[in-house]
Amino acid sequence: MTTEPMNLRSRLHADADAPAGTTNGTPRQTARYDLEGVEDPSEPEGFDPENAHLSAELPPGTALLCVKNTTYAGEPSFELYFHYRGTVRGANRDTDLHHRRQPDLGLPQLVERAAHKGWRATYRHVKGWWGTQPTLVHWIDQLRAAEQPRLVVWDHTSHEIPWELLYRQPVGAAPRADGGADTGGWIGAELPVIRWTTVYDGARAWQYGARPRQCRGGVLVYEDPEFAVTPDSFGRHEVGERSTTMEHLRARLRNERTAFGLLLMRCHGTYSQDPEAFLLGGVSFPELSEEWKMHALHATGAAVLINSCVSARPVVDRRYNAAVPHLFAEVFLRWGAGAVIATVAEVSKAYAHDFAARLVRSARIGSVNLADELTRHRAYYAGKAERAIDEGDPRADEAIEGFFTSFMYAYFGHPGTTLALEAPQEEERAGPDGGDLP
Question: Is the model's pLDDT at 39 over the cut of 80?
């Protein structure tokens, strides 16, 4: 069933002009519009959740967490708005959130912290910070009780808060009755956490416009020769000639006849607060955003794995005094990608290859839900870290480092999007410039 996107302002003010006991003039159903905690906050910078649009196609067990910039005593801070089962609740009071400024909780900062204080201490640090967010934890407790819970996070800040690392372990919890691995209560290892971002395309900027897609076909590969692993597992599904330069990939994406189910990029990513120096495969963010034409991606709606460092790390474009950060993943979403998996920090080449190989192996066996697959990936490493700590394993730091690395991958899209890889039915007949191959 397809429905029109729902304006969140209409949700927040649904009863404003309606008689008591009605919503917009009709009898009120079980859902209610609870404004508990929604106060007059400080002037918002950028994202105003009341003016956002929320797709009504999401399953009932899905919640949306909106994160916006604000200030506290002149310092950057944030506010939270939780949309679940027709209810919108806000957290912006002292009793809701015990932070006073943006936290240094981004994964790049956690890696730096681990270099000085060790992975074990960093692991404890992250666990402890979530204890200062009682309202958010309460919301997540309610979500976890749902059937097939999903959490979509729309974060318009540059604070780099790793929402997948939200920690919740009820005191006195018994071991899992089903005998499954104990993942320690990390939410991103227990249920799918989906990211969203502003898509800079007119009205889409204020709409969670992700739709469930069935991405199917071969793999279009761009690989910096420095990242080559021989042999790899992509050959049987690969579409045409492998791109070894970004310019070659650009030409292939420009040709709308290039058909594929997954775009796999393996290259360097370089972070900088200067957008012109924020690079993916040596291409700056402004060049990729403003000059590339990805007609093939628009035609196929394929999934994209940007298997390079910092491809999902936000940067604020101060050239335009922008309030909302940019990230490379957004460019591919803008051009119609069915889903994007990208990284929020630096990932080693060996780990990046293993992750891509695992995803491809799963998708060639059968159709896989991408959000679920990433959750299982994190759960594997979360379980290893918890066991190492519980058993006093001297290699616990190594296991914890693997745990944090697994959480460096973020998923952007719809919770229902799937990927199935197939060998190309026939050789690609259109060359990179759009002409016929000999």
Answer: no
